[in-house]
Amino acid sequence: MLQRSALGKELVNDLFRRIAHRAAAAMGSAWAFVVAIVVCLIWAATGAAFHYSQSWQLFMTTGTTIATFLMIFLVQNSQNRDSKAMLLKLDELIRAQTGARNGLINLEGMTEEEFQELESEFKRLRAAESAAESRRGVSPDYAKSANPD
Question: What pLDDT is stored for residue 7 in this prediction?
Fold first, then answer.
């Protein structure tokens, strides 16, 4: 029973992923924008024929509300996937870089306090690096342009 439930969940997730990917690609296209403009123009042009009634206004309001509601899920799904992909790529770069701190691989799991501690540490490191460059006679502006990381 548990296997069947997990299989069903996997199928639903895969179906949603495929539909969301295709829908996001379609809704983000120039054609979707053109269709939206045409629908708005037709709606505006038909206003006089319907005497600018509440039903005429309700039609557009309801349609845009439903479209917006559904697009929220598509946009969130797309952003979640993009964020996960970016994090995995960065994790791989950190892992592959000699001398990098592998503890930075799982930053998304940190608490807000841990983020603040890490940010403070990096501020101290930047300040120390800037001071060392000043002692060597390297201007901070030149050091930033010569070492963009």
Answer: 79
Q: Which domain holds residue 49?
A: 2-102
Residues 6+ apart with CB under 8 A from 59: 43
Print burial letters for 113-144: b (CB count within 10 Å at least 16), e (below 16). Answer: eeeeeeeeeeeeeeeeeeeebeeeeeeeeeee
Task: State if pTM tops 0.85.
Answer: no
Which of 80, 102, 124 corresponds to the end of one domain? 102
Same domain, 26 and 81: yes
Q: Which two tokens stand for residue 44?
A: 């505006």
How many angstroms from the chain centroid is the CA of residue 109?
17
